[in-house]
């Protein structure tokens, strides 16, 4: 009887075939073999047992098989937990992606303060107005996708506007005609990183329509669930608890801009909101219908505010043009300044 040797048992296991042990230890991974040696050494110290080589191989093989089986069970449990989490979490959660943000109209008017102050009005009265909606670049919602022109996107009128909107604008004072500016007439901006380039492109498109005033409007819509706001192009979770409050805020802004010079005549702004229980947002369509309803309400209020603003702008501009017009002189007033008629 020779004393037990861990190294001897390891070599025996590595060289043994299936035989009585029924296990090829030579194929065991190195990490498992190391852990197995630790377990055998611990058993030898506790029992004080002295084995021969054959006995060591048999008992050691059983211990190695038991060790590998326990490792396999642990791995299967971990895999089962991970699979359960992977299968259940995505299946129970759906999201609504919020649309893009508003266009930076203030940054688009002129690149510097000096150039903003240099711009002067040149539009005649009555004027032709080109109406267009712009949003930030790469704007997209479930109902419409914008056409990118430089750093902004041009959104089609049929997303929120109705035919009667244009008919009502045409009745505003001092308006010769109202037309819509579409992306087909707007050239690509010279630079995507400079907002002023986008404004130049929009003014060029309006000039193609022989418009005098560019009525440029944008809509800023935000979503909030309790104190959390996902921001533009964020994700809103569907099927929230009824105790949570869901709020949609929409602010519509419009600027009247001189097509010839870029002079800003004035602005108008209006807002609308909708509060409801968050569990009513059970689908992407439900959230999007709420968004469009609030945006439409803010747009109707905006056109009402813009009508009042335009009435003041048109009256002031008409007075300027009247004051700048030279007085008409008659032959009686002119006296000797009128040359005599040739005989």
Description:
The protein is α+β, with helices and mostly antiparallel strands and 343 residues long. It is elongated. Helix 1 crosses helix 3 (53-92) and helix 2 (30-47) crosses helix 3 (53-92). A hairpin with a 2-residue loop joins strand 3 (147-149) and strand 4. The longest helix has 41 residues, at 284-324. It has nine helices and nine strands. The strands form two sheets. Strands 2, 3, 4, 5, 6, 8 and 9 form a seven-stranded mixed β-sheet that branches. It has a two-stranded antiparallel sheet with strand order 1-7.
Low-pLDDT sequence parts: 12-25, 84-92
How confident is the prediction overall: mean pLDDT? 76
Structural class: alpha+beta
* Global geometry: elongated
How far do the termini sit from each other? 156 Å
Could you give the order of the helices and strands?
HHHEHHEEEHEHEEEEHH
Largest sheet: 7 strands, mixed
The proportion of strand residues reads 15-25%
Number of helices: 9
Radius of gyration, in angstroms, nearest whole number: 40 Å
Oligomer: single chain
* Helix share, percent: 40-55%
Instruction: Find the count of extended strands (DSSP E, 2+ residues).
Output: 9
């Amino acid at each position: 009887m020779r004393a037990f040797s861990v190294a001897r048992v390891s070599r025996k296991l590595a060289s043994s075939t299936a035989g009585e042990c029924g296990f090829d230890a030579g194929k065991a991974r190195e990490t498992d073999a190391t852990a197995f040696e630790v377990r055998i050494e611990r058993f030898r110290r506790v029992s004080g047992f002295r084995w021969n080589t054959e006995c060591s191989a048999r008992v050691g093989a059983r211990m190695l098989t038991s060790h590998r089986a326990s490792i396999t069970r642990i791995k299967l449990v971990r895999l089962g937990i991970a699979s359960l989490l992977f299968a259940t979490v995505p299946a129970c959660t759906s999201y609504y992606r919020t649309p893009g943000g508003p266009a930076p109209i203030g940054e688009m008017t002129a690149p510097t303060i000096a150039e903003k102050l240099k711009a002067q009005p040149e539009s005649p009265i009555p004027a032709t107005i080109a109406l267009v909606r712009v949003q930030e670049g790469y704007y997209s919602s479930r109902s419409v996708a914008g056409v990118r022109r430089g750093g902004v996107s041009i959104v089609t009128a049929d997303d929120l506007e109705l035919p009667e909107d244009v008919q009502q604008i045409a009745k505003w004072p001092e308006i010769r005609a109202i037309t819509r500016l579409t992306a087909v007439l707007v050239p690509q901006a010279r630079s995507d990183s400079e907002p002023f380039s986008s404004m130049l492109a929009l003014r060029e498109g309006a000039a193609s329509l022989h418009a005098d005033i560019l009525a440029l409007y944008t809509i800023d819509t935000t979503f909030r669930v309790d104190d959390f706001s996902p921001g533009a192009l964020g994700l809103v979770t569907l099927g929230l608890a009824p105790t949570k409050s869901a709020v949609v805020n929409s602010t519509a802004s419009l600027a009247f801009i001189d097509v010839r010079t870029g002079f800003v005549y004035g602005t108008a702004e209006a807002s609308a909101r909708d509060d409801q229980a968050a569990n009513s947002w059970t689908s992407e369509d439900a959230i999007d219908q709420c968004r469009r309803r609030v945006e439409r309400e803010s747009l109707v209020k905006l056109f009402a505010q813009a009508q009042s603003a335009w009435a003041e702008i048109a009256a002031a501009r008409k007075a300027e043009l009247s004051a700048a017009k030279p007085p008409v002189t008659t032959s009686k007033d002119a006296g000797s300044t009128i040359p005599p008629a040739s005989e």
